[in-house]
Structure of Thoeris protein ThsA Macro domain-containing protein:
Amino acid sequence: MEILQDLRTWRFWRHFLTMSFACLGGLSTVLQTSSVINPEVKIFQGTPVLIAVIVISLVFGLKLSWPRPISQDYSAPKTKITIVEGNMLAETTHLVIGTNDTFDTETPNIIAQSSLQGQALQVLFGGDLRELDAQLTNALTGKPTVGTIAKAGKQTRFGVGTVATVRHAARLIFFLAYAEMDAQNTAHSTPDKVWTSLRLLWDEISKRGNGGTVSVPVIGGGQARLSSVLPAQDAIRLTILSFMFASRNEKVCDELRIVVRPEDYKKLDRLELQSFLSSLRSS
């Protein structure tokens, strides 16, 4: 179904027709040149040859245009970006989990159990809230704060962009604060704050990640309530640009995997995202 969706896009047909006509033109030029040089040779003339040329051109265009996994390798910087459909918590790589600037963890009154952070508590920490809080407290020791807020739950604000890095078995989990909590424990963010948070995230991963692969969700939806101003397609592009800019200063990781929920993945213009990834090779 996803491939059929890709095949219905204008981007696919435009690329398919461009590549097919380019191949047709190239083969026609070669055959015409051959006929001029060797007019006595008739083997490359006639209807069968024309049909063969058209078929070859169509197959060539289809091969170059057929939807593939959304992935791109880069040499400068030497890294790779992959966009996949899946469950973040099923990834075996380093993980990035979005959170709020007070690093609240209590479910369901403050953090929704259906959110990625709420699911991470259950899946990765076995629902042990005290263990997660202890690890976050340890990770935040020495981090600067920006004030306090009178509300239920945690009240110390560390500011947007703060990263609490905790160890989970042989990997790291980067809890990234990209949203601010208000007095009603409602999280809010903006595209500017997401951009700032991502910049600080890449810096932390570069220092602590030791290369390897890092999986990130679509940053900006969920608790940050940005889906209306920063839909998944734009949030993914924002993440990619931020990552590439950071990687040109110093290596962040070997591969960035952007893991998209199935309900969001089916809405993406996947060919556009692949084209966007490819365009960054020469930028």
